[in-house]
C-alpha cells in the first residue's frame, strides 16, 4: 500500500482534497450563522470518506452531498453497531448479538459495502485492462508517468489490481477485503 500513499503520489490528489474541503467548509457555514453548538464529527467522517474514496478507490463517493446513500448509511450503521458491541456486555457476546435486530442490520450493511466495492473493482479492472489493450494496440509504453516525468495518480485500488503474488494477481475477494478494511477504518 505504501506506493499508493507516498507523499509524492498524494500530491497528485491535492485538487481532490481541495474540492472536498471546500464542500466541507460550505456545509459548516450553515452552523456559523446561528451561533449554536453542533456535532462536527459526522461532517468530518463524510469529508474523510469522500477523500479516502478518491485516494483508495479512484472514485467519487459524494458522501458529503449524499449522506443518505446506501453506502454512507451502511458505514454509519456498522459504526454504531461496532460501538454498541464494544460497550454492551450482551451484544458483545455473539450468541446474544445474533438475536438482536442489529445482527440483521449488520449483515445487510456488510452486503451493501461488499457489493459497492465489488462493482468498483470490476469497473476499474475492466478500465485498466482496456487501457492496457489500447496501449498494446498502439505500441505505447505507459509506465504511469506523465509528460513532465511526474508519477500519475494511482489510488490504492490500482496498486492492488497490479499486484502479483507468485505470478498471480490478487482475487477480487482479496482486493475487496483490503479496500473495505481501509475504507471502514477511516469512517469510524
Description:
The protein is mostly helical. The chain has one domain: Cytochrome p450 (Orthogonal Bundle), CATH 1.10.630. Helices cover 69% and strands 2% of the residues. It contains 9 helices and 2 strands, in the order ααααααααββα. A two-stranded antiparallel ribbon has the order 1-2. Helix 2 runs antiparallel to helix 3. The longest helix is centred in the middle third of the chain and has 37 residues. The radius of gyration is 19 Å and the shape is flat. About 3% of the residues have low confidence.
Strand order of the largest sheet: 1-2
From the helix content, strand content and strand pairing, which structural class follows? mainly alpha
> What's the overall geometry?
flat
Kindly report the oligomeric state of this protein.
single chain
Rg on CA atoms, Å: 19 Å
In total, the number of strands is: 2
Q: Class in CATH?
A: Mainly Alpha
Fold topology:
Blueprint: H1 7-11, H2 14-34, H3 41-57, H4 70-87, H5 89-92, H6 94-97, H7 101-137, H8 156-162, E1 164-165, E2 168-169, H9 172-187
Antiparallel strand pairs: 1-2
Helix pairs in contact: 2-3, 3-9, 4-7, 7-9
Briefly say what this structure is:
The chain has 188 residues and is mainly alpha-helical. 69% of the residues lie in helices and 2% in strands.
Amino acid at each position: 500500500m505504501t506506493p499508493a500513499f507516498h507523499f509524492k503520489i498524494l500530491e497528485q490528489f491535492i485538487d481532490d482534497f481541495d474540492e472536498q474541503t471546500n464542500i466541507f467548509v460550505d456545509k459548516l457555514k450553515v452552523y456559523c450563522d446561528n451561533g449554536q453548538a453542533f456535532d462536527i464529527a459526522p461532517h468530518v467522517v463524510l469529508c474523510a470518506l469522500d477523500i479516502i474514496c478518491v485516494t483508495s478507490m479512484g472514485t467519487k463517493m459524494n458522501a458529503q452531498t449524499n449522506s443518505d446513500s446506501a453506502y454512507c448509511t451502511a458505514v454509519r450503521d456498522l459504526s454504531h453497531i461496532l460501538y454498541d458491541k464494544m460497550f454492551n456486555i450482551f451484544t458483545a457476546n455473539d450468541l446474544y448479538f445474533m438475536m438482536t435486530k442489529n445482527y440483521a442490520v449488520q449483515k445487510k450493511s456488510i452486503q451493501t459495502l461488499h457489493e459497492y466495492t465489488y462493482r468498483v473493482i470490476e469497473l476499474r479492472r475492466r478500465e485498466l485492462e482496456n487501457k492496457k489493450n489500447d496501449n498494446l494496440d498502439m505500441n505505447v509504453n505507459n509506465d504511469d508517468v506523465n509528460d513532465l516525468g511526474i508519477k500519475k495518480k494511482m489510488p490504492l485500488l490500482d496498486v492492488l489490481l497490479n499486484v502479483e503474488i507468485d505470478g498471480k494477481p490478487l482475487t477480487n475477494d482479496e482486493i475487496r477485503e483490503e479496500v473495505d478494511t481501509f475504507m471502514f477504518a477511516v469512517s469510524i
